[in-house]
Structure formats: C-alpha cells, structure tokens
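Title: Prediction job returns without error message
Component: structure pipeline
Severity: low
Priority: P3
Assignee: unassigned

Description:
Job completed but the reporter wants confirmation the result is attached to the right record. Sequence as submitted:
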Amino acid sequence: QVAGSYSFNGEITGLGAAGRTNPLNSLGDFLLGAIKTSNIPVTQIPVNRANYNLGLFLNDTFKVSRSLTLNLGLRYESETRQIIKNNVYSRVDIRTGALLVAGRNATRNLNIENDRFNWSPRIGFAYSLGDNTVIRSGLAVFHSNFWMDNGEMVSYPGFTGSRSFVDAGVGLALPFRFNQGMPLDGLQTLTDPFVELAQSSANRPLTVAAVSYADSANLPRITQWNFGIQRNLPLQTVVEVAYVASRNSNQPRTIAANSPRFDSSEAVNIRRVRLQDVRPFPVYTAFSAVQYDSSGDYHSLQINATRRFSAGFSLDGSFTFSKSTDTASGFSDSFQIPWQFPGIEHALSSLDRPRSLTIGWVWELPFGKGRRYLNGNRFASAILGGFQLNGIFSAADGLPLTITQQNANLVLQTQRPNVRNSANLSGKAAEPRFEGPARRWLIATTDPSFPFEPSGNLGLGNLGRNTSREPGFVNFNLSAFRNFNINDRIRLQFRAEAYNALNHVNFLEPSSASISAANYGLITNAAPARQVQLGLRLSF
C-alpha cells in the first residue's frame, strides 16, 4: 500500500550523513525509491473526554483607618485528571514502558494523581501618606488549570493503528521501495490495544501519536508580588513607580521521553546502531511526555506617568526594566537533552524583553466651537475646528535567540555549538551590514572573529540557551480625526490613520540561527512598512 507518509533525507545517494545537507541527494533518494522512514495512520474510534474543576473563594476589603485599607482573600482550586467515558484512553508509563489502558490495567485516569489541595492566599494593602501619595503592595498565589485545555491530545497508543517503519541506520534505506508501498499485514483490533502492542517490535514499533504524562501532575502555580508608590503632581499628572515580580513553579514542559540517552552517543554515531534499538523502550516510536517541573522568575521596575484628560489633552507613558528567566518557555524549547539534565537549561526566558517603552497621547486642537481659540468665529471654526491628533510610540528590546547547529550527535533533540570566544556569547555582529538583499545580524561563520565551533558527534554544545537576541523594534502610530457635528444627535468623523508613520524598518529575527545553515545570521524579512488608511464613522 503506497498511501501514507514517506521521508527521503539524502543519506542513500549522499553516502552517509553528509547527504542530508544537499536537497539534490534527497531528490535522488526519492527517484530511487530509497525510503528512510515511513508511516501510515488508521482512524481512531471517537472518544468522549471529561474532567471536573472546582473553585471556591473568599475575599473582602477592610477599611482599617482613614489611611490604611486591607484586601484579604483565599481561593481553593481543584481539577480532576481527564477520563474517557468509553475508556478509549491509554498512555505509556515513562518510568517502566508499560502500556496503561483505562479500565484494564490502570484506573480511568491512567493512574495520574489528582492534585486536590491548592490554596491560593491573597493579601494587599494601600496606605495614604497625605492627600497626594499612596503606597500599595500585594502578594497573591494563583493556580492554573491544565487538563481543561487539553483538547488537541486525543490520539492514544494502541487505539490509533498507525504503522511506522523507522530509520534503518545512517546511509541505509528501508527494505522496501517506494513503488512497492508499505508491507502492511493487517490492521489493529480497536477494542483491544494490547493486540497492537503484541504485534509491535523494534522493527515495527507501536506509534505513540499523542503526548504522554508523568504520574504526578501538580497544578501550575504562580506567586506574584509588588510594591509601588503613587504620587499626584501638578498639571493633573500621576506618577507611579513599582517593583513587580513573580515566581512560577510546576509549569508543564515537554520532554522527549523515548529518545536515546546521552550515553548511547557512541553506539549510534560511531558503531551506527539504529536509533530505535537504543531507545529506552524500543517497542514504541519516539514520543513526548509532559512533566510539571519547569520554573521561572520575573523581576521588574515599572514606571508609569499619566496626565488625565484636561484642556483637550491627555498623555500616558510607561517604561519597564525587567528580567525573566526560566527552565522552559512554554511546552517546548531549544533543549538538547532536557530529560536528563534539566537544570543546565535555566537561562533567559524566551519572553524576556529587558526594556520596553510606550507613550500615547490624545490632543484635541484648541480651535473652533467650544475650544479655547476661534470659539465665536463660525467661518474659522468650520475650517480649523473639530480636529484631534492621537499617537502611540513604542520601543522595546528584541526577544532572546538560541544558536544551534545541525545535529552531529543524533541522540540529541537540538544540538548547540561549543564556545570559542566567551567574550561574545551572543554572536552578534558589531555593526550589522547588508550582504546583498539580506542584513548580516550574527557574525558570519567564515569571519575570523566567529565565536563558536561545531560540537562533535559524541558530545553536546556548551553554549547556553537564549544567549543571543533578535533585533528590537521602534514603532510610531499616528492618527488625525476631524469631527463634524451635523446636529445634536448625529456626528460624522473623518479618520486618517498611519501605522508605522515614520516608515521605520523593524527587522525580524534571522532566517536561521543554525551555524550549519547557509543563511545563518542573515535577516531577510522585516515588519510591515508604513500603512495608511482613511475612513468615515457616523455616530447617531
């Protein structure tokens, strides 16, 4: 049967791993019908998922004195683990490799513990120092639900019926050709996943299509706290300076649970043992698992100044100076071997922006009816009255960037290079310049000052995660409105709006951050240029 998916990576005509870098070798493998891996899925029967959430809270505000106000609260959070009403539900135990099936050799929630005791206290206060100064501070704990957002994970091992034919080794093709199709000898029994498991082996491993889970899964937890001083100033202006911070724990991260361990590097890369044969559980394909052990910290200085709308003008500006670190930013990140050494991946968060500035204003021009000037001149008011100018200026540092390389060590998920010059861990060019139509952001690999070198096929790179950074951005949006009062109930507004009004070029991230790629460190895209739009708005 030819249906399904097939991969051709160039190793056959390229005589080994070097062929993977040349797309012509991949085309040559395809023309020969020399397959590296293949897979064909079988539709799973429908499932009916369910889980339950309970939240209880108490909260009250107390006026302790004229100067002091307290806010106290306590929340209880509970979320049960998912069940499938018809028990079409299974997972691989990432400790033992056992296939757990609901209602057969596991509970309905697949032996995953329920985390029932999640208490979230909250406390805050506001203290007035006279009429113009207020001190505010607070601390709160939050728990977030996870299983209720799990809708995409609906395929379960032993019920999916996929057949996979795995990599036979570097430079080796599967024992059948593309024109022959996959040698399928029957489909699974959907009502009994253990039948499919019994027919599986390292040569025909059972496909684990969905993410599995660790046995214990505490609800993700975030603790937030802040301390700020707010001061009223002349000209209807309020300024606030605050320290804002948070710490998160029990955050979910995805690990490659069935990838070969690091100590199998020599067997795979030197003796060319198949990856499938050195997996912890060779009877399964590669699969991911969610563990609730990621953590992170955020600390920031936040300054905000607001001029309340008065005399036709308002202004609001905010500046944030911050640092965010974590062991994983979201479910997946640029890990090398996180399932073995998660601590070494603690670094800047992928969401870290050290500096961010935003200024916005609204200005009703003081001309025309009801304004400071030309109020009684109908002719001048008809020409100059009713105008309003608005603007938003924003600027921020770029997001972190992880520099990688082509995997020389095939047991790694993502391989990073070694550091040759620790004085420039970012690898950023001192003066970005154009090379043809592209902009050179990271030092070229051919430059004598290039600070990295490829890590070998038996090790892993010592360059950290998120050591470089993408370009920042500067943007200015401007708009002009003209209001026409047709009568007391109907108003027509003409709007002219310009996004990126200064037409500033905001370069995006480099096309590739892999030192093995030809376009490494080159930026070939930018955010949209100036956009202008005109419109009419009728209010009645």
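Comment from assignee: result matches the submitted record. The chain has four helices and 29 strands.
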